[in-house]
Amino acid sequence: xxxxxxxxxxxQITEAGVDPSGLAVSPKNFAxxxxxxxxxxxxxxLRELQLRSESRGKRPRVAITFDDGYADNGEVxxxxxxxxxxxxxxxxxxIALDGQGEFWWDSLEHLLLDLSDQSAPQDPFEVVIGGxxxxxxxxxxxxxxxxxxxxxxxLRIRRPEEITPxxxxxxxxxxxxxxxxERHRLAGPDGVLALSxxxxxxxxxxxIRHALLPVLSPEARHHELEESRRLLADAIGKPVVxxxxxxxxxxxxxxxxxxxxxxxxxxxxxxxVFGRVTQRTDPYKIPRAQVFDRDEQEFSADLDSWFKGRVP
Length: 312
Ligand SMILES: [Zn+2]
Known about the structure:
The protein is α/β, with parallel strands linked by helices. The chain folds into 2 domains: 5-100 and 183-307, Glycoside hydrolase/deacetylase (TIM Barrel, Alpha-Beta Barrel); 104-173, no CATH class. The protein has helices spanning 27-40, 46-51, 71-84, 94-98, 104-113, 141-155, 160-173, 188-196, 218-236, 255-263, 296-307, and strands spanning 5-10, 12-13, 24-25, 42-43, 61-68, 88-92, 125-129, 132-136, 201-205, 242-244, 268-270, 289-290. 43% of the residues are buried. The structure holds zinc ion. Residues 102, 106, 110, 181, 183-184 line the site of zinc ion.
């Protein structure tokens, strides 16, 4: 039997509002997706899938993962998983464990997309990112959506310490502070501990600052990997051995980063690049399929495509 194993990647289980990055799945659709998985697949813990990727029976094997550490993972997603009797792995950042504020991409979304044409500044926002000057118009919603895309694309490849000043400069330009909202609330120490105590739920690391590992110095990379593992293990009183590369795309990992992940004591690492898992899959290069806010039928069709090795 050919391998039909997949790792699914989720971020948030919450009602979709403004969601320019498509990271939220509604609780209703999530429950429907789990019932499709139960019917069609054998859902196993990520480590078990990685150790034995070949499906022996007729049913394909699937593991469920979540990135970042939003509060809804433990409060909404995990109870739906527990009710369905399904396991999952949660890759938590140090920022989410701390639980203060919001991720930079959520702040960026507020600072640009909460504006109205009346409240938006008339002069463009000018900033230098990685030595490149960027000038974005903010006067109309269309312009602000374009600005969001341009800033998001340029910031996500920078080091965390380069990103924060840009968000602060944008906040000053639009004369408001980035708010914290319910939708983007982070798990915090109590949330992570509660999640870790739900049967079937595994806590993994996603670095401290959601850092793009290849652009960091070796020392900073080592710190992100070691310290996040230690902080999480201390918080939950269990060892942490699973890891997912922040951002996860082709620029989010390289040979040095993979070596550093292994040296930090992790036994596996997930990417956000699409692919199926086979016996030959390197445990530090596990591909995943990103799940969108799709209903039962749409999700079932997505699964068909993924099992054929295609992105729908
Ligand atoms: Zn928010």
